[in-house]
Amino acid sequence: MAYSLEEPQTTAELSGRFEQENKARLELIYNVSKKVGSVPRMTQLLEQIIRMTQRTLNATASSILLFRDNDQDLFFEVASGPVGKALKQVKISAQYGIAGQVARTGKPLIVNDVSRSENFHQTIDKTTGFTTKSLICAPLVVHRQILGVIEVLNKLDGSDFNEQDLEAVVSVAAAAAMAIENTRLHQTVLDAYKSTISTLAAAIDAKDPYTRGHSQRVMEYTLLGGTSLSFSAEEMETLEYASILHDIGKIAIDAQTLNKSDALTPAEWDMIREHPITGANILKEIPFLEKASELVMYHHERYDGEGYPKGLKGEDIPIGARLIAVADAFDTMTTDRSYRAAFNVDDSTRELNRCAGTQFCPTAVEAFISNLRVGTRK
Ligand SMILES: [Fe+2]
After folding, report:
1. Cis omega before residue 40 (within 30°)?
2. Which of 135, 141, 169, 233 is most buried, by the most CB atoms less than 10 A from its CB?
3. Contact predicate 181/142, CB 8 Å
């Protein structure tokens, strides 16, 4: 929606502009509501919300401040406008200022001349060099709990904020509050879920005294590789679940076979070679873990196509599975086994490099080694 900064001259022009602005406000509320369900990352979502709000209200800046842990301080969670970057993660006391007042009382405010407001606190303006002239501030409330506030500052054309602007910001605040609450609930469920996953992984490792902590370490090593390759947050999450649960399929193999020191029979080998498929089948039925199941399925494939269970080759093997393969081998080499002592880090990375292009993907080896904190496990 484009705005003219020129003052409208006639009644028709005035009414046209009024209609245009009302339509824009409605569009803002509609778009924010739509985004709330579609953008998974809270910060990303809140950034989009303040940018859309700022643009629609023809304002100079906008920000969302949230309480953290207690109700004493408000943190700038996201901020747009000329000094937005400088404000990120800055905190202010909720005991003072207009934002503090709105956060304490839960009542939205329009202040069209802050110099006349005794509540206006100049600290942020003094720190950033920004001059606040007018503002709208609305509380983010969910289940009668105030999570923080949204602020919109200074109309670009110097005009006043009006009641319709305030109504739009209050509606946006309601949607934003709901999004924040949903994300926090989601995180709580996710944390509980991750703790169950760790317990499950530890149960698999416990089947073999030599693999205690193996799953956890494979996860840490795999994530080093993912970080090197600049995986997105979502990809890292999939990598985290897949790597810690890569051997979940071993749950179906008896401990005697897993720990056997003599050569395995062909039937026992078949059972071992089945564990990536068993693991993937377990995980694909669980919400959150469908993507991880694919990586578990292919964590024993080799770059040269000589691995199992499918004999996939090169880039046909998902990159996450190639990273897990490297991490798995590195941890196996750097821990004691019943039949040999652990190799040191240098020898192990040399071996990974030697097998890059045959057993391992060269990109995955390079990604892991380049980010390995050498010396931690020497
Ligand atoms: Fe495995």
Report:
1. no
2. 169
3. yes
Write down the CATH number for the domain with range 12-181.
3.30.450.40
How far, in Å, is the centroid of ligand 1 from the Cα of 300?
6
346 C-alpha to ligand 1 centroid (Å)? 23
Sorted by where each begins, the domain ranges of the chain are 12-181, 198-371
pTM above 0.85, yes or no: no
Per-residue pLDDT tens, the chain, 378 aa: give them.
333 444 445 666 666 766 777 677 777 777 776 666 555 577 888 998 999 999 999 999 999 999 987 778 999 999 998 888 888 778 888 888 899 999 999 999 999 998 888 888 877 888 888 889 999 999 999 988 999 999 999 999 999 999 999 999 999 999 899 988 888 888 888 788 888 888 888 888 887 777 788 999 999 999 999 999 999 988 999 999 999 999 988 887 888 888 887 888 999 999 999 999 999 998 888 777 889 999 999 999 999 999 999 999 999 999 999 999 999 999 999 998 777 889 999 999 999 999 999 999 999 999 999 998 644 443
CA 230 to ligand 1 centroid distance, Å: 25
Tell how far the Cα of 265 is from the centroid of ligand 1, in angstroms. 18
| Ligand 1 mean position, distance from CA 247 (Å) | 5
CATH number of 198-371: 1.10.3210.10
Are 12-181 and 198-371 equal in CATH topology? Answer: no
**For residue 275, how far is its CA from the centre of ligand 1 (angstroms)?**
7
